[in-house]
Amino acid sequence: MVNTLLLPELREMLTEGNVAELGEFCTALNAGRTAEFMEGLGDDEAWQVLRHAEVARRAEIFSHFPYERQVSLLGRQDAQEIAELLEEMASDDRVDLLQDLADERVDEILPLLPVADRRDIQRLRAYPDGTAGALMTTEMAKLDEKLTVRQALDELASQSEFLETIYYLFIVGEHDQLRGVVSARQLVSALRSPETPLRDLVETDVVTALTTEDQESVAAKVERFNLLAIPVVDEARHLVGIITHDDIIDVVREELNADAQQMAAISPLDSDFLTVNLFTLSWKRGGWLAILFFTALFTAFALKFYELELNKYAWLAWFIPLIISSGGNSGSQSATLVITGMTSGSLQLRNWRTVMTRELLVSMMLGGFVAASGMLVAMMVAPSVRDALVIPITLFFVVICGCFCGASLPMVFKRLGLDPALMSNPFVAGIVDILGIVIYLNVARLLLN
User: Is residue 119 located within the same domain as residue 80?
Assistant: First the structure.
């Protein structure tokens, strides 16, 4: 609400060219709040406001804009001003933005950047998307192991303006080979002996990520060891960058969104739901809908195969939705638990015996409960108690079948090297629907004939 009230004032400042007030607006508030107040402005208006801030402050405010607006601004504004902005940004953030610009625009901007920044961008852009190399930043606290504590503090003071974080100080040897890490707290505590060399303080047991390592694996390491940053090394253990916890949060959020969409039978979206192209959205949803449609056809064929029994015992048809939903729901529950367990790392493929044993026991308890409830209902409509037994027996085995399929299929996909989330809840439900019909009508054949 406050944002809306401030817009007329901002536009009036722009119209009047009120340099002093626009400059004050850009500096008076927290950068995030300043970006919020500019949400209602058009891209050109927002850029005009940013011009009244120092370049460093401009980059800080710009970093709080929605990602789509950042890309739009980079694609439309003066190339020289964009180059000045990128020079102030974190290396990993600017590379992400440049990846989403047209190649012609990137070729226009890069020559305007300092040589060191240009080389850094080109090096980071060379790493495949989704790897640690593509996610890392090169702005890290890197100190030579030969330095003393006093020298290290002096060096750190000269570097700090350009560093993303100084929680961890990475100690390197010859040719930038990673020797270990010293925390900022350790370094300050060591001031009692300022001539102590860093090699005497370094912790050599360091969790690292390879440049080619998948970002999900890196995120799992950061979560497991509760790290604020993780160093990235090449095959020769040369320190090439770090990945900070804020980037890991973005990865986790991205992966969770992708898994949630896949579990709902939607191919992961490349952008927000409200901004994705409608044809793209239809394609990503339509492909899975087509697969599920043909899966459902098998259910129809199964019903056709047992047409004789359904015609002879019409009351069996009344319970088909109950049978299908019980199996599908139990399968979806199991699939969700297994997929989320594997995603979080708490469940590994080697645990499959434990998983299946637990699911068997749980499914028998759930099946018994559902079967007892089904028996009470069946006795009200079935011609006899013997006939009514078809429903609880079917429900018992269908729930067991659903839990088994829901738990096992994601692990099978994982074993094949595929994303277990591809075994989506609708897909599991479709498979269990077919099996449920087969179980139901074969039980009916045995008891009613």
Answer: yes
